[in-house]
Amino acid sequence: MGRAKCGETRPSFLSQCLSSNFAAPLTPPLPRKHVGSREGLVNPWGNQLVTDLRSSEVVVCEFFNPNLLSSLLPSFHGFLGSPLELFFGLLGSLNLTAYPTSPVLGSWRGEEVKEEEEMGSFGRLARRAVETDAPVMVKELLRGNKDVMSLAQGVVYWQPPEAALNKIKEIVWEPSISKYGSDDGLPELREALLEKLRRENKLTNSSVMVTSGANQAFVNLVLTLCDAGDSVVMFAPYYFNSYMSFQMTGVTDILVGASNPETLHPDVDWLEKTLRENNPIPKLVSVVNPGNPSGAFIPKPMLQKISELCRNAGAWLVVDNTYEYFMYDGMEHYCLEGNHIVNLFSFSKAYGMMGWRVGYIAYPNEADGLHAQLLKVQDNIPICASIVGQRLALYALEAGPEWIRERVRDLVKNRELLMEAMSPLGEDAVKGGEGAIYLWAKLPEKCSDDFEVVRWLANKHGVAVIPGSASGGPGYIRVSFGGLKESDTRLAAERLRRGLQELVTEGMVQ
C-alpha cells in the first residue's frame, strides 16, 4: 500500500480491514537504530494503540484515520470532523494490523517487546517523544530549588523594545486582537519580513509563513515534508527539540552523524556517503547555524557543500537561523537560498520575545505545493500565531538589527566569565561560543554521567546546566550565557567554577 499524501484518507481500505477477521497478529516493524556517532534507544512511533470500547480489542494501525476512530468510538462520532481527518491523514503511513486484547502490548525499545500488566490503554502515554528527559529534568530541578541559578535554558535577559511594548498597550482593546488572523500570518508582518529577508539575509525568492516560534515552524516542516518511517539526518550534538519533533511526528529513522571534535562542524564526508548509500534517500538534513547546543558556526563554503550534496541527492536542507544576530569575534551570519532549502527564523532570542511565541519559515517560491501543505498543518496546530504577538513582532522590527546587536555585544563578557569558570575542565575541554549563546564542555572521564553531574551541580552548588546526552553528546554539558545580566552571570560563574573544581579534584562529593 502506498504512502498517504498530506491530508489524504482511504476509507474504503480501512472499512475492508475492519470487516475482516485477522486470525494471527503480525510482528510489528521495528525502526532502525541511530547511524553514526550515537547508538541508543529508538522510538518506534509507527504503531498507534486504540482500544475498541465495545469488544476490548487493541488495534494497531500504521495508517490511522478518523473513519477507523469513528468505527471504534461511535459515541464520540459527533466530535470527529475534517480537522481530525486532516490531522490523522498527515501522520498517515502504511498498513493496518489487529491484535487481541490479551496480552496487552507493551512499549518497544530497540528489538525488545515488553508486556505491561496495567489495565486498559488509557493509562499509557504515547511512545513517541519520551526518550529525551533533559527539558523536564532541568525544569524540575529549578522548580524544586528557588536558589538555583540557571545557565540552562536558551533565553536572553532582555525585554522586547520599549517602544514596541508601548504600542501594544495602545491596541489591546482592538477587536482584531482577539480574532483569528490569516493562517500564514498578518499580511503587514509578512510583507515586513519579506523586506527583511531581502535586505539582511539576501533571500529574494522566498515566501513566508509566521508560526508560534521556530520550534513550531520545525514541526510544521516535518509534518509537511516527512512521512512516518522516512529517513532524516542530524549532526551530534543536535538540538534536542528538533530530535523530539522527528520522534513525535513519526520519523523513526533518524541518522545521526558525527561532528569534528575540535570545531564541532558537521562531518561532510559522512553526509556525502550517507546520502549516496542510504536507501531510501534521507528526506531532509537539519542543521542549526550558529549551533544549538554547540555555539559553533558553520563556515559558508561548508554549508554550500552541504547544500550541494542535498540538492544532488534530492533531499531538503532545513537551516535554523534562530541565532542569526548572535555572532562574535567579527564573524558574520549568512543564509543560503535554493529550491531545496528552507530557512527558519525566530523573534524569541533576538527581540527578547520568548513568551510571545513568534517565528517564521522562509521557503522557496518554486516548491510546488509546499505552501498549500504548510497551510493545512498550520490550521491544525495553532490556526495562526498569536495576533498580539505578531503585532509586537511588527513593531519590534522597527527597532532594527542594531538594537539587537547592542545587546548581543554585552554577552561577550558573559561568555568570557563562563569560559573562565569552566577552566578546571582543561584547556581543550570547552568548545563553541563562536555564535549563539552556548558553550559545549567535556566532563572528566571519571565523572562522565552528565545527568548525574547536572543534578549534583544544581543540588550542591546552586547552578543549572543542560546534560549533553539530550543532544547526542553523553559526557558533555551545555552552558548558556544569554539568560543573565553580567552581575548575575558573575555569581553563577563562581558557583559553576567551584562545582567543576570539586568535580575534577574530588568527584561528586555529596
UniProtKB/TrEMBL annotation:
This is Aminotransferase class I/classII large domain-containing protein. Belongs to the class-I pyridoxal-phosphate-dependent aminotransferase family. GO terms for biological process: amino acid metabolic process. It comes from Oryza punctata (Red rice). Its cofactor is pyridoxal 5'-phosphate. PROSITE patterns: AA_TRANSFER_CLASS_1. Keywords: Aminotransferase, Pyridoxal phosphate, Transferase. GO terms for molecular function: pyridoxal phosphate binding; transaminase activity. Residues 146-496 form the Aminotransferase class I/classII large domain. SUPFAM superfamilies: PLP-dependent transferases (SSF53383). The keyword tRNA processing does not apply. InterPro entries: Aminotransferase_I/II_large, AspAT/PAT-like, NHTrfase_class1_PyrdxlP-BS, PyrdxlP-dep_Trfase, PyrdxlP-dep_Trfase_major.
